[in-house]
Amino acid sequence: MAAENFTPTDAVGTEALSHDEVVDVLNDLLENTRDGEYGFRTCAEQVETANAKQLFASRADGCRQAGEELIQLVRAYGGEPASGGTAAGAMHRGWVQIKGTVGADSELSILESCERGEDTAVARYRKALKQNLPADVRAVVQRQADGAQRNHDQIRDLRNAARKSD
Hints:
Blueprint lengths: L18 H28 L3 H27 L10 H15 L5 H23 L5 H31 L1
Protein backbone atom coordinates (compact mmCIF):
# COMPACT_ATOMS: atom_id res chain seq x y z
CA MET A 1 0.00 0.00 0.00
CA ALA A 2 1.39 3.40 -0.91
CA ALA A 3 1.67 6.13 1.68
CA GLU A 4 -1.30 8.43 1.60
CA ASN A 5 -0.81 12.17 1.44
CA PHE A 6 -3.33 13.98 3.57
CA THR A 7 -4.21 17.58 3.03
CA PRO A 8 -5.47 20.00 5.66
CA THR A 9 -8.98 19.50 4.29
CA ASP A 10 -8.72 15.85 5.38
CA ALA A 11 -8.22 16.98 8.96
CA VAL A 12 -10.83 16.35 11.61
CA GLY A 13 -12.59 19.57 12.57
CA THR A 14 -11.95 22.96 11.07
CA GLU A 15 -10.33 24.80 13.98
CA ALA A 16 -6.57 24.87 14.21
CA LEU A 17 -5.12 22.97 17.13
CA SER A 18 -3.86 24.90 20.13
CA HIS A 19 -0.16 24.79 20.86
CA ASP A 20 -0.83 22.30 23.69
CA GLU A 21 -2.78 20.04 21.32
CA VAL A 22 0.02 20.21 18.74
CA VAL A 23 2.51 19.26 21.47
CA ASP A 24 0.30 16.29 22.45
CA VAL A 25 0.24 15.03 18.84
CA LEU A 26 4.00 15.51 18.50
CA ASN A 27 4.73 13.77 21.80
CA ASP A 28 2.62 10.79 20.73
CA LEU A 29 4.73 10.57 17.59
CA LEU A 30 7.91 11.07 19.62
CA GLU A 31 7.00 8.05 21.75
CA ASN A 32 6.32 6.21 18.49
CA THR A 33 9.78 7.04 17.11
CA ARG A 34 11.38 5.86 20.35
CA ASP A 35 9.44 2.61 20.14
CA GLY A 36 10.76 2.24 16.59
CA GLU A 37 14.34 3.04 17.55
CA TYR A 38 14.36 0.65 20.51
CA GLY A 39 12.45 -2.01 18.56
CA PHE A 40 14.79 -1.94 15.58
CA ARG A 41 17.82 -2.10 17.91
CA THR A 42 16.28 -5.10 19.68
CA CYS A 43 15.69 -6.81 16.34
CA ALA A 44 19.29 -6.06 15.27
CA GLU A 45 20.51 -7.85 18.40
CA GLN A 46 18.35 -10.91 17.70
CA VAL A 47 19.06 -11.59 14.02
CA GLU A 48 22.06 -13.51 12.74
CA THR A 49 22.78 -12.17 9.27
CA ALA A 50 24.95 -9.11 8.76
CA ASN A 51 22.50 -7.66 6.21
CA ALA A 52 19.57 -7.85 8.64
CA LYS A 53 21.67 -6.42 11.49
CA GLN A 54 22.70 -3.50 9.27
CA LEU A 55 19.14 -2.90 8.07
CA PHE A 56 17.71 -2.82 11.59
CA ALA A 57 20.56 -0.63 12.90
CA SER A 58 20.00 1.79 10.02
CA ARG A 59 16.25 1.93 10.70
CA ALA A 60 16.93 2.51 14.41
CA ASP A 61 19.14 5.46 13.52
CA GLY A 62 16.45 6.87 11.22
CA CYS A 63 13.91 6.67 14.04
CA ARG A 64 16.35 8.41 16.40
CA GLN A 65 16.79 11.24 13.89
CA ALA A 66 13.01 11.55 13.46
CA GLY A 67 12.68 11.76 17.23
CA GLU A 68 15.23 14.57 17.42
CA GLU A 69 13.27 16.48 14.80
CA LEU A 70 10.05 16.03 16.80
CA ILE A 71 11.78 17.18 20.01
CA GLN A 72 12.70 20.44 18.27
CA LEU A 73 9.09 20.95 17.17
CA VAL A 74 7.72 20.16 20.64
CA ARG A 75 10.02 22.78 22.12
CA ALA A 76 9.18 25.28 19.35
CA TYR A 77 5.51 24.92 20.33
CA GLY A 78 6.31 25.51 24.00
CA GLY A 79 6.10 21.93 25.18
CA GLU A 80 8.22 19.48 27.09
CA PRO A 81 9.29 16.41 25.07
CA ALA A 82 7.93 13.04 26.22
CA SER A 83 10.57 11.08 28.08
CA GLY A 84 10.15 7.55 26.72
CA GLY A 85 8.29 5.16 24.50
CA THR A 86 4.94 3.48 25.04
CA ALA A 87 4.10 0.56 27.32
CA ALA A 88 2.88 -1.41 24.29
CA GLY A 89 6.21 -0.81 22.56
CA ALA A 90 8.13 -2.03 25.62
CA MET A 91 6.00 -5.18 25.77
CA HIS A 92 6.56 -5.83 22.06
CA ARG A 93 10.34 -5.49 22.45
CA GLY A 94 10.25 -7.76 25.49
CA TRP A 95 8.46 -10.40 23.45
CA VAL A 96 11.11 -10.23 20.72
CA GLN A 97 13.83 -10.61 23.37
CA ILE A 98 12.09 -13.59 25.00
CA LYS A 99 11.80 -15.32 21.64
CA GLY A 100 15.52 -14.76 21.12
CA THR A 101 16.42 -16.04 24.59
CA VAL A 102 14.49 -19.30 24.24
CA GLY A 103 15.67 -19.88 20.69
CA ALA A 104 12.21 -19.45 19.19
CA ASP A 105 13.41 -16.70 16.94
CA SER A 106 14.21 -16.96 13.31
CA GLU A 107 14.83 -14.14 10.92
CA LEU A 108 11.27 -14.69 9.66
CA SER A 109 9.70 -14.38 13.12
CA ILE A 110 11.79 -11.27 13.86
CA LEU A 111 10.68 -9.73 10.56
CA GLU A 112 7.04 -10.57 11.36
CA SER A 113 7.35 -8.92 14.77
CA CYS A 114 9.04 -5.91 13.25
CA GLU A 115 6.31 -5.57 10.63
CA ARG A 116 3.65 -5.54 13.37
CA GLY A 117 5.54 -2.71 15.03
CA GLU A 118 5.64 -0.80 11.76
CA ASP A 119 1.88 -1.34 11.30
CA THR A 120 1.41 0.48 14.59
CA ALA A 121 3.77 3.29 13.58
CA VAL A 122 2.00 3.87 10.27
CA ALA A 123 -1.39 3.94 12.03
CA ARG A 124 -0.16 6.53 14.55
CA TYR A 125 1.10 8.78 11.77
CA ARG A 126 -2.20 8.46 9.91
CA LYS A 127 -4.05 9.42 13.08
CA ALA A 128 -1.81 12.47 13.52
CA LEU A 129 -2.33 13.54 9.92
CA LYS A 130 -6.09 13.61 10.46
CA GLN A 131 -5.56 16.49 12.88
CA ASN A 132 -5.64 20.11 11.76
CA LEU A 133 -1.90 20.60 12.22
CA PRO A 134 -0.03 23.82 11.45
CA ALA A 135 1.63 23.70 8.02
CA ASP A 136 5.19 23.43 9.38
CA VAL A 137 4.25 20.52 11.63
CA ARG A 138 2.17 18.82 8.93
CA ALA A 139 5.13 18.90 6.52
CA VAL A 140 7.41 17.13 9.03
CA VAL A 141 4.74 14.63 10.07
CA GLN A 142 3.92 13.81 6.43
CA ARG A 143 7.59 13.27 5.58
CA GLN A 144 8.04 11.02 8.61
CA ALA A 145 4.80 9.16 7.80
CA ASP A 146 6.13 8.48 4.31
CA GLY A 147 9.34 7.14 5.88
CA ALA A 148 7.39 4.88 8.25
CA GLN A 149 5.45 3.53 5.28
CA ARG A 150 8.71 2.85 3.40
CA ASN A 151 10.10 1.06 6.48
CA HIS A 152 6.93 -1.02 6.70
CA ASP A 153 6.99 -1.93 3.02
CA GLN A 154 10.67 -2.90 3.07
CA ILE A 155 10.20 -5.08 6.18
CA ARG A 156 7.10 -6.65 4.59
CA ASP A 157 9.03 -7.43 1.40
CA LEU A 158 11.88 -8.98 3.40
CA ARG A 159 9.37 -11.00 5.40
CA ASN A 160 7.76 -12.25 2.20
CA ALA A 161 11.18 -13.23 0.81
CA ALA A 162 11.99 -15.05 4.05
CA ARG A 163 8.71 -16.96 3.86
CA LYS A 164 9.55 -18.13 0.35
CA SER A 165 13.01 -19.35 1.42
CA ASP A 166 11.69 -21.39 4.37
